[in-house]
Amino acid sequence: MVIDFGTLYDFPRDLNRFFEEMMQPISISQRRTSYPPVNVSEDANALYIHACVPGIAMDELDITVTENDLVIKGVRKADEGRYYRQERGLGAFQRIFNITTNIDRDNVKATLKNGILEIVLPKAEAVKPRKISISA
């Protein structure tokens, strides 16, 4: 049997964190509970989304790209066993990202490696930066 006293020792810190979160704007506290956590970046050629989805197989994820949105859906299932403590949440999840850049939807790629889902959304040619030559 495993007894976790960590919650008793951490009680004052947890109480402080609770009140600090109550004072935060709603958008920040919502961001903490979003799953999966993501990093979103871009360069001149594409938008990149890296989502942490440990323990989730490729066939348990559903990725959909529409004209304006990217939707990541999945289900976190419980492993077999008897748990004394289970901090990782379970169940269905969904993240929706509004895409304001024109992307080439036919060439969107997704890979899953070591629990990190990488989605590459290539920018449409019309929105990529172009070098303009100067004529004399």
List keywords for this structure.
single chain; extended; three-stranded antiparallel β-sheet; about 140 residues; Immunoglobulin-like; alpha+beta; 7 strands; four-stranded antiparallel β-sheet; about 20% helix
List the helices and strands and how they pair.
Elements: H1 6-9, H2 11-23, H3 26-33, E1 38-42, E2 46-52, E3 61-65, E4 69-76, E5 91-98, E6 109-113, E7 116-122
Antiparallel strand pairs: 1-2, 2-7, 3-4, 4-5, 6-7
InterPro entries: A-crystallin/Hsp20_dom (IPR002068), HSP20-like_chaperone (IPR008978), Small_HSP (IPR031107)
Family: Belongs to the small heat shock protein (HSP20) family.
Domain SHSP: 29-136
Oligomeric status = single chain
Separation, N- and C-terminal Cα atoms: 82 Å
- Give the overall average pLDDT: 84
Structure class: alpha+beta
The low-confidence runs, each spanning 5 or more residues with pLDDT under 50, are: none
What is the architecture of the domain at 34-78 and 90-127 at the second tier of CATH? Sandwich
Please give the order of strands in the largest beta sheet.
1-2-7-6
Task: Say how many strands there are.
Answer: 7
Tally of separate helices:
3
Largest sheet descriptor: 4 strands, antiparallel
- Secondary-structure element string: HHHEEEEEEE
CATH domain fold name of the domain at 34-78 and 90-127: Immunoglobulin-like
Mind telling me the CATH class of the domain at 34-78 and 90-127?
Mainly Beta
Strand residue percentage: 25-35%
Q: What's the gyration radius in Å?
A: 21 Å
Helix content: 10-25%
Apparent shape:
extended
Pfam family, one: HSP20
Domain SHSP: 29-136
Protein name: HSP20 family protein
Family: Belongs to the small heat shock protein (HSP20) family.
